[in-house]
Amino acid sequence: MKVPVSWLRELTSLPSSVSTEDLAARLTAFDLKLEEIIGGQITGPLVVGRVLTAEPEPQKNGKTINWCRVDVGPEHNEPATEDVPAGRGIVCGAHNFGPGDLVVVSLPGTFLPAMGFEIGSRKTYGHVSDGMICSTAELGLPGDADGILVLEPGLADPGTGAVELLGLNQETLDLEVNPDRGYAWSLRGVARDTALAFGLPFRDPADIAVPETGAEAYPVVVEDPTACPVFTTLRVSGFDPTRPTPPMIARRLVQAGMRSISLAVDVSNYVMLELGQPNHAYDAAKLNGPIRVRRAVAGERLTTLDDVDRALDPQDLLICDDDGPVGLAGVMGAARVEIDAATTDIVIEAAYFDRATIARASRRHRLSSEAARRFERGVDPTLQARAAQRVAELLVEHGGGHIEPGLTVVGEVDTRHEVTLPVDLPRRIAGVESIDTDAAVRALEGNACEVRIDGESLVVVPPPWRFDINDPYDVVEEVLRVVGYDQVPSVLPQASGGRGLTRAQELRRRVGYALAGDGLVEVKTFPFAGPADFDRLGLGADDARRRQVLLENPLSAEEPGLTTTLLTGLLRSAGLNVGRGHDDVAISEVGRVFRPRSGAPAAPIYGVDRRPTPDELAVLDAALPDQPLTAAWVLLGDRERGGWDGPGRPVAWSDAIAVARRLADVLHVEVSVEAASLAPFHPGRCAALVLDGRVVGHAGELHPKVLEAYGLPPRAVAGEVDLDALLAAAPEIGPRPDFSAFPVAKEDLAFIVESRVPAGALQEALAEASPLIESVRLFDLYTGEPVPAGHVSLAFNVRLRAEDHTLSEDEIAGARAAAVQVAADRFGATLR
Amino acid sequence: MSAPNSDYDPVEVTPLRADEVERMRDEALAAIAAADSIEALKQVKIEHVGDRSPLALANREIGALPPQARKEAGQRVGQARGAVSQALARRTDEVEAQEFERRLAAEAVDVTLPTDREPVGARHPLTTIQDHVSDIFVAMGWEIGEGPEVEAEWLNFDALNLGPDHPARTMMDTFWVTPESAAMVLRTHTSPVQARTMLTRTPPIYIACPGRVFRTDEPDATHAPVFHQVEGLAIDEGLSMAHLKGTLDHLARAIYGADITTRFRPSYFPFTEPSAEVDLLCYVCHNDPAHVADCPTCRGEGWVEWGGCGVVNPRVLIACGVDPERYSGFAFGMGLDRTITSRYDIADLRDLWDGDIRFTEPFGIGL
C-alpha cells in the first residue's frame, strides 16, 4: 500500500516533529512494514516548460532525436535571437510530444534521485542540450507510462516550479500490508493505526452523513445475496465531464501508484484509497434496465477493461444489466457502461462482496486489481452507503451537478461477533508480565474494539472491518502489537529431553561422509526433468522411469515433472564441469526421486475441526507418490591423477561399483553384484546391486551414446542406489569382531574357467568351501596363451586359519582340496 | 743345568724394543684414525691387527725371549695391541654411524613435491549447515523431524490454517501436482512435518525440521525454485512468545556468535498468532554506528531479516489433535541457503545448484 505522507498527516494531526522515518519505524512495529520511503529528494530548477519547436533530426546511429526549443519561463529562458524565440535548446530522444505541449524540464543543476546525478549542460548530437525533458520514471513518479510526461494543457505557466506543482517532493510510504489486515489498504485504516501508535485522537474520515430519503437511486436486483450481501447505488446528474481533476487528488493518486484518468474515475479511486471501499461509476445513459448481480452461466463471455475477452465460469459473480454482464463483480468492469468524456449522469456502485468469491474469481482469471485486492482481504461491510455518498459529494464538489435524492441499499450484513478469552491470556501467551487487564483493554479499545470484563473473561467485539479478530489468540496479537513486540523477554525453554538423531539420520550422515571420503564431491541439483532428459539417458519407451509425477505449473515445458532418477541432474552437472574444463570429475548427490503410485487416489482434504483418524492419515499417505531417498554418483577422467611419481589411473567401470560397495559396507548391509543391462549404462558393463534378492540400484560404465548426449569423455561411469532401502536393511548394531590369534596358512590357487563364469560367484564359493578358509581374494586375472580361448585364469589368495589351534599340514591340504573340488564341481574350474 | 745364555741380548730382538712397539702402535692408531670408510678400516685391520700385522709378528717374538724378559715384552706388546683393537672398534662404530648418516642423507627427498593424486571429496554446504543446525537443536534436547517433499495439500495448507481461499496461499507460489484434483503439492515449507509430528505424537514436542522446499521462482541470482529451510516447533504446557525469543536467541548465538541477538517485528502467518518476523543483529557490522552505514550485508539497517515465527495458532493445534486449552506452543522457520550465501559472500544463488565442483570443494567435509 502506497501511502502519501501528507494525506496521512492530514488525517491524524501527527505533530510535525515526528519525521517520516520515525513514522515509518513506528508503523513497522505496528505490523505495517515499511518497504521504502519514496520521493522527497529533488533539488534544483525543475520547471514546467512549453515546447515551442521540435525538429526531428535523424542520426547516424539510426535514432532520430528531437532538437527542441522550450519556453521555461522568463526567469530561466535564454533571450530570443533572430533564429529562435526565447527559451532553451534541449535534445530529447522521445517522440510522444510536440510543439505546444507542457512538459517538465530539469534545467542544469537539478538533482533527480531517480537519475542519481545532477543534470548539466552537455554537448550531444551536435547541439548543446541545456537540460532534459523528463519522463515519469526520471521524475521518480510511480506508473509505467513510456516517454515524456506531458502535462494537462493549461495546468501551469512555463517556469512554474514542477516540484510543488506535481507534488514531487511529497513523500510516499510504501507499506507491506499482511493479508489479514485488509483494513490497512486504506488511508482510513493506516491513519487509525498511526493515531493508535502515537497515542493521538483519531477522526474517522468515514464519519459521513447519508441522507435518508426513502427513495431509490438506481434499481438493483441481487440474485445471490451470499456472494453479494450489500449493494448500494447513488446517482449524480448534471456532472460536467470536462472539468479537470484537482491537482491534489491527481497527485495523491499518482503517489499511490495509480494514474489520473478523468475526474469521475479519479474520484472513484480516491475514495477507494481514502476509505478502502472499491466503488464503480457507471454512465447512467449506457445502463439498460436494473443492475442485476448474478452468477455467470456456462458459455458466457466478458471483455474486461484490460481488453481481455474472458470465458466465464459459473462460479464467477457478475454485475449485469438487461444487455448482459457489465463487470466481473469486485474485480474489473467492462467498457460498455464506462463513463466517458460525454457522461453527465453517473450511477455510483458501492458493494460488499463475499471475500472467497472475489478471491477465486481473481485467481481463476489471473486478474488482480485494486478492487479485488481489497475485497478478498475484507472491506468494512457497513461502509457502502457512506462511501457512495463520499464519491457523490466529491463529484459534485469538483464536477458540478447534484446528487439525486434517493439511495438504493440492497441487503445488510451483521458481522458483529464476540470473542471471549481469559483476562490473563494476553499476558500468558505474549510472555510479557506488564500486560495487565488495563493494558489489554486500552490496547483493544485503541483498535476500535468494544471490550467488557465478565468475571475472569475478557469479552471483545471487534469493529466490522477487522476480519482478523475471531479467536482469543487474535486478540493477544492486537494487544501485543500495541504493547510492543520489543517487550517480549528472552527465556530459553527446557525441552523434555530428546532421543538425539534417529538411526536413519545418523546413517545418512555416515553415507555423506563415506561418499566424501571416497573422493566424491557432493552437488545439489533441481529435481525437475522431462522426456528430453530421459531420451538423453536412452531410456526405452516403456521404461518405468519415464512415468513422472507431473506438475500443473512447471517452470519449463521441457521439465514438466519431478525426476525419477538423480542421474538426470547429476549428468547435467558432470557435463557442466567438463565444459568448464575439469578433466577429472567425481560427483555425488543424495536426494529424493519421485515415482507415481499407479492407481493412487487423490489426497483427501479433511476438515480442520479435529484430528484425522489414523486410518484417514493412512489414506492420505497412500495417495502420495513413492519418494525414496537415493544416492547417485558420476566419475570421469582419472580416478587417481597422474603425478611426478607415476601415471594417472583412469576411471573404470569397477570404480562405480566400488562406491556402491563402500556404501553397503559403511551401513553393514550385504549388497551383491550381478550382471545386468539397463540404460543409461553400457550393456556389457552394468551391475545390478542386489539386497535381499531385490535390485536396489545399478552401477557401471555409461553407455557411449549417453556420454555423447551429455558431452562426457569416454569411459565415464555412474551409479545410483535406493538409499532408503539400504538404510532400512542396516542392522541396529554392526558385526562383532571375530578373529583368531593362531597362525595363518596362505595358499594361492589359480583356476582356468570359462569366461562366462562370474569371478564373484567363484570367489564366494571358495570362501565357503571349508570352515578353515578365513578369506579369499582375487589377485590376478589373465587371458591369452596358454589359457585356452573362451577361458580365463583366475588366481586367488586363500588364507586359512583355525580358531583354536595351529593348522596341521593335513588340515591345510584338506581345505585346499575342498576349495579345488568346489571350483571344479560348481564352475568346471581346473587348477592351473 | 746349562749355563745362563750369555749370548742373550734383548736389544738384539728389534721388534720388541719399547720404542719399536710404540712406533708400531702409533702407526696403527694413525692408520685407524685416517680410515674414513668401512673398506679402509678393513684394510687397516689387515695391516695393523691381522695375523701379519707388525704387532702380531712382534707378539710371536716374545716366545724367543728369556723368561725373565717375556713378561715385560708381553705387557708392552699386549697393551699396544689392546689400544689398537679398541681404537679400531671405536673408529668402526664412528665410521658406520657416519656411513648410515650419509646413506640417509642420500635418501633425502624434495618434500615440497605435490601429494595430490588421491581425489578429495567434499560435502555440499547446504548439507553440512543442516547437520550443524540439527546438532544445535539436538544439544537442546530437541529432535529432528522429516517428511515427504511431495505433500498432501491438506497438510501443507489446510491443517496449517491456510484454507482454500486464504490470500496467503497465492503468496506461496506453489507447485501443484497434476492433476490439481489430486490435492498434492511440492511442500512450500517444512511445516507439514510439524503437523505430521503433532498428528502422531503427544506433547511435549520439541522438533526441528530442516529440509528442501519448493516455490515457483524462476532461478536467477537471488531466486531458486528449490531451497532449504529449518523450522522448529515446540508444544508444551505454558509456552509463550518469550520462550520463542529465548530459543531464537540461542540459535542465533550458536550459528552466528555469542554477541548476536534477535528482534521481533509483527507480521502475519496463518499458522501462528501472534506472528512475528525475526531479525538478526547484523553479524558483519553488529549495528555499530561506525560501520553500519556502509555495511553491505545489512545495507545500513543494522539488522538482517532471518525468518518468521510466532505462537502456534490454536486452530492448527485443533486440526492436529492437540488440546489448545492445555497446551500452547511456538513455531519458527528460516532459510538456510541465505545463511550460506551471506556468510560466504556468494553473490549468485545459482552457484549452489549448478554442480560446479569448485563451489563445493572449498567447504571440505564441514563448514
Report on this structure:
Chain B: It catalyses: tRNA(Phe) + L-phenylalanine + ATP = L-phenylalanyl-tRNA(Phe) + AMP + diphosphate + H(+). Chain B: Its cofactor is Mg(2+). Chain B: It is found in: Cytoplasm. The complex is a heterodimer of chains A (832) and B (367). Chain A is of the alpha+beta class and 832 residues long. Chain A has 21 helices and 43 strands. In chain A, the strands form 12 sheets. A 7-stranded mixed β-sheet of chain A has the order 29-32-33-39-38-37-36, with helices on both faces. In chain A, strands 3, 4, 5, 6, 11 and 12 form a 6-stranded antiparallel β-sheet that branches. In chain A, helix 5 packs across helix 6, helix 6 packs antiparallel against helix 9 and helix 13 packs antiparallel against helix 17. The radius of gyration of chain A is 40 Å and the shape is elongated. Chain A starts with a strand and ends with a strand. Chain B has a 7-stranded mixed β-sheet, sandwiched between helices. A two-stranded antiparallel ribbon of chain B has the order 2-3. Chain B folds into 2 domains: 97 residues; 239 residues, BirA Bifunctional Protein, domain 2. In chain B, 40% of the residues lie in helices and 18% in strands. By secondary structure, chain B is an alpha+beta fold. Chain B is rod-shaped, with a radius of gyration of 46 Å. The chains are: A alpha+beta (832), B alpha+beta (367).
Short description:
The complex is a heterodimer of chains A (832) and B (367). Chain A is built from 21 helices and 43 strands. By secondary structure, chain A is α+β, with helices and mostly antiparallel strands.
Secondary structure layout plus pairing:
The complex is a heterodimer of chains A (832) and B (367).
Chain A: E1 2-4, H1 5-12, H2 20-29, E2 32-38, E3 46-58, E4 64-71, E5 88-92, E6 102-106, E7 111-112, E8 117-118, E9 122-124, E10 127-129, E11 132-133, E12 150-151, H3 162-165, E13 172-177, H4 187-198, E14 220-222, E15 230-237, H5 247-255, H6 263-275, E16 279-283, E17 291-295, E18 301-303, E19 309-311, E20 317-321, E21 324-328, E22 332-333, E23 346-352, H7 355-364, H8 370-377, H9 384-399, E24 402-403, E25 408-410, E26 419-422, H10 425-430, H11 437-446, E27 450-454, E28 457-461, H12 472-483, H13 503-517, E29 521-522, E30 528-529, H14 531-536, E31 561-562, H15 567-579, E32 585-592, H16 614-623, E33 629-636, E34 638-640, E35 649-650, H17 653-667, E36 671-676, E37 681-691, E38 694-702, H18 704-710, E39 717-722, H19 723-729, E40 745-754, H20 759-767, E41 773-782, E42 791-800, H21 809-827, E43 830-831
Parallel strand pairs in A: 14-17, 29-32
Antiparallel strand pairs in A: 1-13, 2-13, 3-4, 3-6, 4-5, 6-11, 6-12, 7-8, 9-10, 15-23, 15-24, 15-25, 16-23, 17-20, 18-19, 20-21, 21-22, 26-28, 27-28, 30-31, 32-33, 33-39, 34-35, 36-37, 37-38, 38-39, 40-42, 40-43, 41-42
Chain B: H1 18-34, H2 38-48, H3 54-61, H4 67-106, H5 125-139, E1 143-144, E2 150-152, H6 153-156, H7 167-171, E3 184-186, H8 191-200, E4 205-214, E5 226-236, H9 241-256, E6 262-269, E7 272-281, E8 303-312, H10 314-319, E9 328-335, H11 337-343, H12 351-354, H13 357-360
Parallel strand pairs in B: 1-4
Antiparallel strand pairs in B: 2-3, 4-5, 5-9, 6-7, 7-8, 8-9
Helix pairs in contact in B: 1-2, 1-4, 2-4, 3-4
